[in-house]
């Protein structure tokens, strides 16, 4: 009983929404989403992505919320509390390991974003050209000191927030920063739409060419939907354990998925009209955010202010998402290993700092660590990304769907998600349950088999 009284919860449904959205919205929206659209044909990719969110994202998120709130435990302890067979705890351990792996390289990219906020404030991008924008980005990756310092700053800020706790840390920050992020991205999108030739960018983003729907495009869209919604890494189980008892978890899943997709689309609107207006390449790749945005904003009125705003909102997205990743092992260490919260936070972020250095120092193509191959031809940075995004996330999501769909009583699932029958959502739950049991596992199996090369299509 003492443990139960000590455990914090989010205070309101409003807080639940912003905290969960803060986990889902991250650099995937502003960094990964635009360049994947750019390299996969635009509107066709966007359409498939939205379908994947509906068919896989929302059902799996509902499963994780169910496991979290039903157990009121961390990603590992949840399955023990639900009296699941011992083997199911593997999902929790995988989720915790995945959170670490993603944080290793994600904190590195977040460090680049933080450094760009500082550079934008200093005015380093005034008069920038295509070649100097590329040079500045590559210099950001060069170690050994600068990128590591920025990575440590990111994890230090996240540590301070998490030490404050669930209500005073996670809830307070996400309730404050998520509305700010939304306002900033709308401002950037509106300004981008006023540029000459902006219609070309909108056409690229929204025109659907079904000839672009190849197998790899469909799989990339499904993988992105999973990565962006923070599924399969224990995050939504952990956050679900802090939900209020009256929260409508199906509605929260849908609202988070819709809001996350809207922010991604707004990021695309902020980027692509500007990219086309200045004759840049939409298929620039991961450097799209860092090499094209400074160039674009340097050429428009009030560009310096908007550039600071854009990278500040990117920093907000990176911070709130990283908070949710770090909270997964923190909850495990505090609840399963008996650590105090401060010790658990510092222990977790220390591991991320030390191992994350490998990702940071291998990101530049000419660095010594870049020539050390871990998985295939991939270095540390790409291996952490590949192992988490292509292997552990889909396996984790698949196991969660199988556990809820085949090893949990349907009546228990419906009772919890209807708030003990107080919500009139029986039909919606029946549809979601069919997706959980049949549709989502099938699609996730395809993604996993493709990612390990068993078959291609």
Describe this structure in words.
This protein is mainly α. The chain has helices at 2-6, 13-24, 27-39, 43-71, 77-81, 89-122, 130-141, 146-163, 166-193, 198-206, 215-228, 235-240, 249-277, 288-297, 303-336, 341-362, 380-406, 410-417, 426-451. Helix 6 crosses helix 8, helix 8 crosses helix 9 (166-193) and helix 15 crosses helix 16 (341-362). The longest helix has 34 residues, at 89-122. The chain starts with a helix and ends in a 6-residue tail after the last helix. The model is unreliable at 1-5 (pLDDT under 50).
- What is the distance, rounded to the nearest whole angstrom, between the alpha carbons of the first and last residues? 53 Å
Largest sheet: none
* β-sheet strand percentage: under 5%
- Unreliable spans are 1-5
Write the layout of secondary structure elements.
Layout: H1 2-6, H2 13-24, H3 27-39, H4 43-71, H5 77-81, H6 89-122, H7 130-141, H8 146-163, H9 166-193, H10 198-206, H11 215-228, H12 235-240, H13 249-277, H14 288-297, H15 303-336, H16 341-362, H17 380-406, H18 410-417, H19 426-451
Helix pairs in contact: 2-9, 2-13, 2-15, 3-11, 3-13, 3-15, 4-11, 4-13, 4-17, 4-19, 6-8, 6-15, 6-16, 6-17, 7-14, 8-9, 8-15, 8-16, 9-13, 9-15, 10-13, 14-15, 15-16, 16-17, 17-19
